[in-house]
Amino acid sequence: MLADHQFDIDSVEVLEALFGQPAQASLVKERDHIDAYYRQWIAASPFLALATSGPDGLDCSPRGDPRGFVEVVDANTLILPERRGNNRIDSLRNLITDPRVALLFLIPGLGETLRINGRARISTDPALLERYAVDGKQPKVVLVITVETVFFQCSRAVARAGLWDVSRHVERGSLPTPGQILEHASQAAIDGAAYDSALPERVGTTLY
């Protein structure tokens, strides 16, 4: 059953009246730079979600590497290597026309997450590409992010999700596999079983 449109909220004033004012702690945690405490959180994170916006719509996609893969250059600058992916480059396409980015860092075992908003530019600086090479393989580009706001998000969402609770992890066989999804989407032009069979080795040999 869909919600009746007559109950839709269309003003900030109504929202604020419904939720009330944020507590002091929700406001003072926001900084306009990366301080010593937030720097430690970034260094401990092996995963983030990157959100961008462009003329064709929004994108939110994962980024991951060994913890500390995002380098804090200074209090207002981050560098994020763009590792090998599926070549859709949705995020990068968006950044060509709109440099705004939002990052959500996760740290395994920690309920709180870290949110950063800013602006990014796409760089092919040879020195930077070499700095972030892994096993001799350079990223094709790096994102140089100018930080505008930084703050942590409380642990309620992760606690409700039981994200780090192993007993609540989903068994791989209980959901459709990538191959099954592709075979269905391609009307059997893609052999799903063959795709699934080759996937583990392909991922392992094409990480960088």
What does this structure look like?
This protein is of the alpha+beta class and 208 residues long. The protein contains 8 helices and 7 strands. Strands 2-1-5-6-7-4-3 form a 7-stranded antiparallel β-sheet, with helices on one face. A hairpin with a 6-residue loop joins strand 5 and strand 6. Helix 7 crosses helix 8. The longest helix has 14 residues. The protein is globular, with a radius of gyration of 20 Å. The termini are far apart. 14% of the residues are buried.
Short description:
This protein has helices at residues 12-19, 24-28, 36-44, 90-97, 126-131, 156-161, 178-185, 192-205; strands at 47-54, 57-64, 71-74, 77-82, 100-106, 113-123, 141-153. By secondary structure, the chain is of the alpha+beta class.
Shape: globular
Strand content: 25-35%
Which ranges are low-confidence, i.e. pLDDT below 50, for 5 or more consecutive residues? none
The main β sheet shows up as:
7 strands, antiparallel
The count of DSSP E runs of length 2 or more, i.e. the number of strands, is 7
Helix vs. strand class: alpha+beta
Order of strands in the sheet with the most strands? 2-1-5-6-7-4-3
CA-based gyration radius = 20 Å
- The tally of helices reads 8
Instruction: Bin the helical content.
Output: 25-40%
Oligomer: single chain
Distance between the termini: 45 Å
Query: What is the residue-averaged pLDDT?
Result: 97
> What is the chain-wise order of helices and strands?
HHHEEEEHEEHEHHH
